[in-house]
Write a structure and sequence with these properties.
PPR repeats lie at residues 38-72, 139-169, 170-204, 271-305, 408-442. This is Pentatricopeptide repeat-containing protein, mitochondrial. Keywords: Repeat. The protein is mostly helical and 494 residues long. The protein has 28 helices and two strands. The protein has a two-stranded antiparallel ribbon. A hairpin with a 2-residue loop joins strand 1 (446-451) and strand 2 (454-459). The chain is globular and about 95 Å long.
Length: 494
């Protein structure tokens, strides 16, 4: 009897491995030919379908198990619930949850972790919390899924509470926190978590650094970012393509084009993301011609451009005023590969035409759009009107913006600036009064400087800095010195 069971298990496993390379009818045939169809072979076939993204067939096979009187186990549920996630069907997931309860498997850690992932991605973290509390001895995967759910809903304190009570925090848990805080703009907390991670002896991996460099880029902390770069070299040895791409983007956002090019040149492997990062870096830093040259090199080495490449190219043309060249690239994409074009590319063209003062072309371009123009299109047109003091068209664009977003403060400010540049002070007063009546306030712009790895943030007329007395004293000295200089006579007029 033991020999027969072992033989059936062997044949089941062998055939299960065999159908991984077969088409659906043959896979079904192999399953039907098994002398003893059991939960192992059925689960393996379900897994086969999920790997091929044939999720409806995976679910159909799960239902067939009950007709064949095969009871699913915890591994069956962990596989089939992936299909409900991919199909974005929370109701189907809840049905699987109900079946697991009937079979008494809902408290199993594998089933619980799969259910947690399902509810986090398709439903709410509160339902995920219910599953977590129902799970017997949750593991690191369970805890990490739950804290990801809290981060997804911006519930940072609760995510931190879950993180602090994980019995054995691993690199995946740390990465989830760093990535979650970085994506939500909590950049300082993200880098603090990384520092704590190192202090607690957890070794970062290739997935740690992209989120870290993103946070550093958002804060524009070049000094700290270079120290994180050194950490990456220390712990990883060789920077892979994913970390390398994030490094290129980091240096670009910090304005260090030289470091950007150096990192790109040192990459052992380059993909379309690598080229896009370098093209956009040159576009952002005003080197439009260099960006165009890189685009040509990219095509020469056989890397196919994508929609991000085209957007970087259009931005490069915009920054150096190459309107006709941008039109050429846009038309080439429209006629040769229309799938590349997204709404962002159309908006970029409107911005380019408006900034260059080609308002008739910009208006016609908007009229000929294959979709209804959104907020960004009218704000791009309004921005161009502000630059060229086109108050008539600016008022029209502002009306469109405010119809879509009545509380958009920036539109009032741009329209006011356009009137101001044209010397229409009464119109400026009208716009400002309307803002006051609606209770709209401008958000003050800020600037910051990094000194010895510490960020100092300032707003207009700032009085909150600890060294404000010394700062204003030194600023006064500089202004006095500048006023005495013959090379800065314009300051007297100001």
């Amino acid at each position: 009897m033991r020999y027969m069971n072992s033989l059936c298990l062997f044949r089941s496993t062998r055939l299960s491995c065999k159908w991984l390379t077969q088409t659906d009818p043959i896979a079904y045939q192999l399953f039907d030919e098994l002398p003893q169809r059991d939960v192992v072979s059925a689960t393996s076939l379900i897994s086969h379908f999920t790997r091929l993204n044939q999720h409806n067939k995976a679910i159909s096979m799960f239902s067939k198990m009950f007709a064949l009187n095969i009871k699913p186990n915890e591994f069956t549920f962990s596989v089939v619930m992936q299909s409900s996630v991919f199909l974005d069907d929370s109701n189907l997931g809840k049905q699987f949850h109900g079946v697991s309860i009937k079979l008494g498997l809902n408290s199993n850690v594998y089933v619980g972790s799969s259910l947690l992932n399902l509810y986090v991605k398709l439903s709410s973290v509160d339902e995920a919390r219910f599953v977590f509390e129902d799970t017997h001895e949750p593991n690191a995967v369970s805890y990490t899924s739950l804290l990801c759910g809290y981060l997804k809903e911006d519930r940072f304190d609760e995510a931190m509470e879950v993180f602090r009570v994980i019995p054995e925090r691993n690199v995946v848990s740390w990465n989830a926190m760093i990535s979650g805080f970085s994506k939500k703009g909590r950049n300082e907390e993200a880098v603090d978590l990384f520092v704590e991670m190192l202090r607690r002896g957890c070794v970062p991996d290739q997935s740690t650094f992209p989120s870290l460099f993103s946070a550093a880029a958002n804060m524009a902390v070049l000094g700290r970012g270079k120290s994180y770069h050194a950490c990456a070299l220390k712990y990883l040895g060789e920077v892979g393509v994913f970390v390398g791409n994030s490094l290129v983007s980091f240096y670009a956002k910090c304005g260090s084009l030289e470091d950007c090019v150096r990192v790109f040149g040192g990459l052992c492997e380059r993909n379309v993301v690598s080229w896009n990062a370098l093209i956009c870096a040159h576009a952002q830093n005003g080197s439009g011609e260099a960006a165009i040259e890189l685009f040509q090199r990219m095509k020469e080495v056989g890397v196919k451009p994508n929609s991000v490449t085209l957007l970087g190219l259009l931005l490069a043309c915009s920054h150096v005023g190459l309107v006709d060249e941008a039109y050429t690239y846009f038309e080439q994409a429209r006629t040769q590969d229309a799938e590349l074009l997204k709404s962002e590319h159309y908006a970029c063209m409107v911005d380019l035409l408006s900034r260059s003062g080609r308002f008739q072309q910009a208006e016609k371009f908007i009229q000929d759009l294959p979709f209804d123009p959104g907020l960004g299109f009218w704000k791009a047109l309004l921005g161009g009107c502000q630059i060229h003091s086109n108050t008539k068209l600016g008022e029209y664009a502002a009306e469109k913006v405010l119809a879509l977003e009545p509380g958009d403060v920036s539109s009032y400010v741009m329209l006011s600036n356009a009137h101001s540049a044209a010397g229409r002070w009464q119109s400026v007063s009208i716009v400002r009064n309307e803002m006051r009546e609606k209770g709209l306030k401008t958000v003050p712009g800020c600037s910051w400087v990094e000194i010895k790895c510490k960020i100092h943030v300032f707003v207009t007329g700032d009085k909150r800095h600890a060294h404000k007395s010394e700062i204003y004293e030194l600023l006064g000295y500089f202004l006095e010195h500048a006023m005495k200089s013959q090379e800065t006579d314009f300051l007297r007029e100001f």
